[in-house]
Design a protein that fits this description.
The complex is a heterodimer of chains A (419) and B (102). Chain A contains 15 helices and 15 strands. Chain A has 419 residues and is α/β, with parallel strands linked by helices. Chain A has 2 domains: 253 residues, 3-Layer(aba) Sandwich (Peroxisomal Thiolase, Chain A, domain 1), CATH 3.40.47; 149 residues, Thiolase/Chalcone synthase (Peroxisomal Thiolase, Chain A, domain 1), CATH 3.40.47. In chain A, the strands form 3 sheets. Chain A has an 11-stranded mixed sheet with strand order 5-4-6-7-1-8-15-14-9-10-12, with helices on both faces. Chain A is globular and about 65 Å long. Chain B has a single domain, classed as Non-ribosomal Peptide Synthetase Peptidyl Carrier Protein, Chain A (Orthogonal Bundle). With 102 residues, chain B is mostly helical. The longest helix of chain B has 16 residues. In chain B, helix 1 packs across helix 5. Classes of the chains: A alpha/beta (419), B mainly alpha (102). At the A-B interface, helix 3 of A face helix 1 and helix 3 of B.
Amino acid sequence: MKGASPSGRVRVVVTGLGVKSPAGNDVEAAYARLLAAESTAVVAKHLVEAERDLAVEMACLVPEFEVEPYITRRERRQLDRAAELLLCAAVDAVSDAGELALVDLPSSRVGVQVGTGMGGLGTMEGTTFDYGAHPMTMPVHTVPRTMANSPACRVAMRYGFRGNCATYATACASGTTAIGEAARRIRYGELDAAVAGGVDAPVTTTIVGAFAKMRALSRRCDEPDRASRPFDTDRDGFVMGEGAAVLVLERRDLALARGARIYGEITGYAANCDAFHIAAPDPEAVTAAECMRLAVADAGLSPGDIGHISAHGTSTVLNDRAEATAVHRCFAGQSPPLTAVKGVSGHLIGGSGALEALLGLLCADRGVVPAVANTLGSPEADLVDVVIGSRRTIARGPVLSNSFGFGGQNACLVLTPPA
Amino acid sequence: MDLSTPLDPGGTETATEPALSRAELSLTVRTAVSDVLGTEVGDIDEATDLGNDFGIDSLELMDVGSRLENALRVKIPVSDLLEARTVGDAVDLLARRMGRAA
């Protein structure tokens, strides 16, 4: 097969990165914030001002930035916030990879793969509030603004990428699914390059209220910056976040031939489902452990080769305990250092897996495992090696990036830094 | 100007209000067009050709129509929207629909 290595496997590399996230709006800013292990959670003014008596009014928000260099006023009117954030992150990733080189590829060989848990639900919520009583006065662009595949299709339209364009909904694992599926499509020979990532913009009164009703969110509202504390003894739920992260993936031989900068390689991916409960993870975590094992095996590695784990680590008791159990099972008690980005970023729902894969690859390449923000001590310390207090220096090596979504959705990636 | 909220908040008063002048009608149309296209009102005049000058798409055209319907409380058939080539044509058509001489 074209582009196959001697092992017969087509290799997929990462050549461009872009983020619009609470941790920062460029990659190095987000990496620095992660290393500083400082939470980004704040009281969200717009949730307070809505005066809806929400039990939770804190969130991790994308810092304001100039959108006009990315999107014209005319186009922006037609975009939902999720589409806007994803498109901006994608533009950064594509220019980072080299826009001219990408648009020079046959357009049918370049695809867009995006994960989102909520899609345009936030805009539909606003539309319902504003026009529910008089639907025929609603804006004409309501459907294209709110449909879940808008972010991906906007990227395809921007660059004329005519290959497979798909949007994945695996709840909190959506971003990881999108990157894994993109890598598979390149391996399979369907695409030569893909813009892949995840996004959500769920910081609205109804969506935050809905998660608060499930008791999934932290109630540490008087100390927002202490609220997200994955694997910590005193965790009490996750903090809602918004944002997008995008990676450009390319067939390795083509990327090498054009002299692209290579951040690393997507070496392993696996996905499965607990088939246990619509929201809670299976506490026995056999299926989640199997997902990790399959991803490591897909990379042609064994668990001992993994340098560190970027955990899903939401800061809910149920997730963190099940994930620790899964890691313990998969690594047979020999857990590599484990960190959790959500201590800093909050939970970007569909955006999280992409942000964590991106930052995990940078950490893997730089030989650093950041401390988990806010976490002081973990009841799971006997199961996993949670990095607490200060960052850990490790040998450069592959990272396992985990995502687990409502519905029992498990998705794991292995990303390997360049040799 | 945000035309998603009607210009005439009283609504029911419309019938008894004095008719819009040609200049007022023109401003209303140019405002709707500039809101949809993300331009300034001053960038749009009656000679502006929405297809040739801006490549307006069908949804954007429906958006202009919807804004005008809300602002002017008048039904605008799709055929009118498609027929008007320039902004001036649209003003003329609207003036006729609203029962006034252009």
